[in-house]
TrEMBL record:
Belongs to the Nudix hydrolase family. NudK subfamily. PROSITE patterns: NUDIX. Its cofactor is Mg(2+). It comes from Algibacter agarivorans. The gene is nudK. The lineage of its organism: Bacteria, Pseudomonadati, Bacteroidota, Flavobacteriia, Flavobacteriales. The keyword Mitochondrion does not apply. It holds the Pfam family NUDIX. This is GDP-mannose pyrophosphatase.
Length: 195
């Protein structure tokens, strides 16, 4: 953690380390108007992540995934299934190595190179997670397996290859509701990746 002269008396209490780490942070914060206020924030730390938009310039297609996400099921997503970019959590490896590995595990393509386009905090009010956003070109001859995720982790990932146009329609009609996926689809539109 960096030092800030606007913070003092930071006290961290562990609330849960069941799978990842949830802490309660109590601290004094110096407001812009010069007064100190005491604040409490719960902070969830599950490391950083990486995600990628896979695109094929010849076929004008992209590859997304569909998988069950319990937190979305708890909040308005009827069957809990979510259409997403391929993504994973960083282990000890760097973001590039992580996303190349995750791409092979989740959708079955072995990429040689990827391009980093953004880095951003996922949910800065509550999570420490920083997300590394990539794009990567795939071709049919890069396919090495059917994807689907790791059996050892009971991942059950459907691979969706679709025309880019269809994904843009799904973005615009509200079928795509994962913000990381929205970010990279918008990147592809802005930068005319598939025109
Ligand atoms: N037992 C158990 N397993 C868990 C738990 N939380 C996650 N897992 C398992 O840990 C694995 C994580 O798989 P990854 O592919 O590495 O991560 P991800 O879940 O796809 O995460 C990506 O998307 C998230 C957004 O929803 C991002 O937050 C994350 O950074 C990353 O980009 C999955 O098999 C998942 O089931 C938990 O609380 N308990
Ligand atoms: Mg994943």
């Amino acid at each position: 953690m960096q030092k800030s002269s606007r913070l003092k008396n930071i006290k961290s209490t562990l609330l849960s380390d069941n799978y990842y780490i949830l802490k309660k942070l109590n601290f004094d914060y110096l407001m812009e108007n010069g007064t100190w206020v005491n604040q409490m924030r719960e902070v969830y730390d599950r490391g950083d992540g990486a995600g990628i938009l896979l695109y094929n310039r010849e076929k004008l297609t992209i590859i997304l995934t569909k998988q069950f996400r319990m937190p979305t099921y708890m909040n308005d997503n009827e069957d809990g299934l979510l259409v997403e970019i391929a993504a994973g959590m960083l282990d000890k490896d760097n973001p590039e190595a992580c996303i190349i590995r995750e791409t092979e595990e989740e959708v079955g393509y072995r990429l040689e190179s990827v391009k980093k386009v953004y880095e951003g905090y996922s949910s800065p009010g509550v999570m420490t997670e920083k997300m590394h956003f990539f794009i990567g070109e795939y071709t049919d001859d890069m396919k090495v397996n059917d994807g689907g995720g790791l059996e050892s982790e009971a991942e059950d990932i459907e691979v969706l290859e679709m025309p880019f146009e269809k994904a843009v329609a799904m973005l615009n009609n509200g079928e795509i509701v994962d913000t990381r996926t929205i970010v990279l689809l918008q990147y592809a539109i802005i930068h005319k990746l598939l025109e």
